[in-house]
Amino acid sequence: MTQSSPHRHHAIDYVELTVTDLERAKRFYTEAFGWRFNDYGPGYAGIRSAQDETASEVGGLRAGEEVRPGGPFVLLYSADLDRSVEAVTNAGGRVVSGPYGFPGGRRFHFTDPSGNELGVWAEA
User: Hey, which of 12, 14, 50, 101 has its CA 20 to 30 A from 77?
Assistant: First the structure.
């Protein structure tokens, strides 16, 4: 019997916050909300649920020089990344980065017709 993915195709799946001081941000979110983190080096920490030890990550803190305009970065999940790239392009969106590999999968970034930047990721 295979386990189904906890991710839903084209649903909001993950939110990234750009932070200017990763360690300070981790301390803040731990103290304020009880969040826990998976560290992926000096520039990134995945956000884990405060309530469920077995839950997958729900977001991440990404170190950056400045906070990105427009606020947090929203990631959607895709069961078929290449078809999602095609769907975004056909619907009038513009791919601005990728697809590219990262630990655990592949992803791309796009802008919608209003200029909002989002990402889509798929498991490896």
Answer: 50
Q: What are phi and psi of 60, to 5 degrees?
A: -155, 160
Residues 37 and 29: their CA atoms lie apart, in Å, by 10
pLDDT(89) > 90 = yes
pTM, full prediction: 0.73
> CA 62 to CA 112: how far, in whole Å?
22
Q: Residue 98: pLDDT above 90?
A: yes
Q: What are phi and psi of 83, to 5 degrees?
A: -70, -35
- Count CA within 13 A, CB hemisphere, residue 12: 7
**Alpha helices (H) in the chain, listed in sequence order:** 22-33, 81-90
